[in-house]
Amino acid sequence: MHVIETNKLTKYYGKSRGILDVSMKVNEGEIYGFIGPNGAGKSTTIRTLLSLIYPTSGSAKIFGKDCIKHGAQIRQEVGYLPSEVFYYDNMKAMDLLKYSASFYNKNCDKRIKELAEIMDLNLNKKINDLSFGNKKKVGIVQGLLHEPKLIILDEPTGGLDPLMQQKFFDLIRDENKKGATIFFSSHILDEVQRMCDRVSIIKEGKIIKTESIESLRQDNYKKLRIEGATPLPEGIFNGAGVTDLQVEANRASFLYKGDINSIVKQLSTIQLKNLLVEEPTLEEIFMYYYEKEA
Ligand SMILES: Nc1ncnc2c1ncn2[C@@H]1O[C@H](COP(=O)(O)OP(=O)(O)OP(=O)(O)O)[C@@H](O)[C@H]1O
């Protein structure tokens, strides 16, 4: 059984496209990234999963149960951190969190205190008196206080300073180690790269690629930088698989996609002084797929 399973999930807002035929399977215990630029459809997918909005067609299941039919039951086991948090400003943080906890069939007092301590949040302050970043922390505690089996994060780190971001990621990793599955939507590719096992890339409402971070990087192009002992022979790297070639006297840099042995053969004809082979960053891979699918 998959923790999340969507089948051709589609949402139109009137005539305008939200998401189109989104199919995904998220395994138990995974940290699953969902990446795409503004307007690609990340929040629409998440809101549909949480049955905050209804799909136009297709279906979504969480823990094997239909998201619409069993929405209330599913929400007991799901923690959600929206990209923007809005609160009743006059309440104390503690009262708000106790109110949130009352929707779950368990006592969350201990966990609220633990989470507030980890996130360095003063529970006795009124929401009104909290900074934007501290309000965000209230949202984090609110999303995790019932120790959910599935944690859905929608652009979670906006407003947190780098230190708090690190604490937040450590917290999410700990929850994952304890068994929680994480669905992590973001356009900050660096954090996705550090956190996630697999990712789906969404573009204009459609998923264009689903792959493990590792194979996305391995099966992709390599970046090569070489320095020859003498000026490089003209046209040496004009073969198949080479793009973005830049040559200057005895230095060259280019991207290479293809059989690694054939480029090594070519390199062996040169007297090398230095050679650097780099994996592309997720950012570069993302751009590659975005341009290819344009
Ligand atoms: N309530 C709405 N009414 C009409 N169109 C909407 C509504 N919500 C979203 N859309 C449209 O659906 C598409 C997907 O938006 P969505 O908010 O899901 O994207 P996103 O990937 O989450 O982007 P962002 O990072 O900016 O939140 C966009 O074209 C957006 O304009």
Walk me through what this model shows.
This protein is 32% helix and 30% strand. It is an alpha/beta fold and 294 residues long. The model has no long low-confidence stretch (mean pLDDT 90). The two termini are 34 Å apart. The strands form 3 sheets. It has a 6-stranded mixed β-sheet, with helices on both faces. A 4-stranded antiparallel β-sheet has the order 2-1-4-5, with helices on one face. A 4-stranded antiparallel β-sheet has the order 12-13-11-14, covered by helices on one side. Adenosine-5'-triphosphate binds next to strand 2 and helix 1. This is ABC transporter ATP-binding protein. InterPro entries: AAA+_ATPase (IPR003593), ABC_transporter-like_ATP-bd (IPR003439), ABC_transporter-like_CS (IPR017871), ABC_transporter_ATP-binding (IPR050763), P-loop_NTPase (IPR027417). Keywords: ATP-binding, Nucleotide-binding, Transport.
